[in-house]
Task: structure prediction
Amino acid sequence: MRRHNLNYVLVGLFVTAMVAATIIVIALITGRTGATDPYFIVLDNVADVKFGTQVRYEGFAIGQVERVEPFGESGRMRFRVEVAVQRGWQIPEDSLARIGSSSFLAAKTIEIEAGHLATIVAVGGEIRGAPSADVFAAITTVAGEVGALTRDSIRPLIEQIAALVGRVDSMVSEDVGGLLATLRSTATLLEQQVPAIAGSADELLVELKASAAGLRQMTGDENVETVRHLLANADAASTAVAGLVNDFRSTARKIDALITGLDQMVGQNREGVDQSIADLRYSLRSIARSIDTITHNLEGTSRNMNEFSRLIRQNPGVLLGGGGPSEAEDAFPAGVAPP
Result:
């Protein structure tokens, strides 16, 4: 009987060790090892951010996202992202956290840019959030704004112009006779007013001569020098504008080079990404194949522990190395007298 109880104890210890090892392996897989400190970040957009999203400080992994909670502020929806960071990690108060990714196909992460202040964020405090620095997200936003402008402004304007042209064409086709009569009357009126117009033209010539004299006075030596300064300033301004245009062209070339480099990076690392996905699938299949065995062993362990605790209640002396109950006592449960 004592050997039977010893076997139960050994089996229980073995199963307990296996459960502890399983818990440790799961903790290592999920990255929840070691003590952590809580912080939170307030962001306007949390696309692709969820539980387990990696948190990096200047590219170094220091924690993960624990929870994302939406809340209303000033009539719009914002998001409170709670993160767990390695205990003792110091984050300056002027640090900025934004959503980013290391490459085009890489998973989204929360990148913290280190600040320069000596004071650090208190544990449980807020790390200032910043808009996402993703180039493709910015391009998508600009494309959406252009589409909205085309849909809401340009297209209705074109429709209004087309309707106006149609109305003008209808008016011309319907009122050609009236328009010709109006033109005839206008020509007659002009013929009658020609002498008066000629007199007004003479007066206008006199006034133009007077204005020319005043213009000669305005274009004296001092005024000419002022005009030269104005022309020189205009020339300098045109030179500055030309330099600005060159800067824009240089920026456009840099953006093209950046997009080309990203494309090459994705092409060069495609095999590594495919291999990583294959490894992850293999790991998940292994866990799925073993989960039934693990649960079966846990159920058996639970039954063994129940039996072990029943034996201890019946005979506590087993733990102190005493003898087990008699065969008669084994045959009947506690509290039931033999016949």
Observations:
- Residues 327-332, 334-339 have pLDDT under 50 and may be disordered.
- Residues 282 and 288 are 10 Å apart (CA to CA).
- The first helix runs from residue 2 to 30.
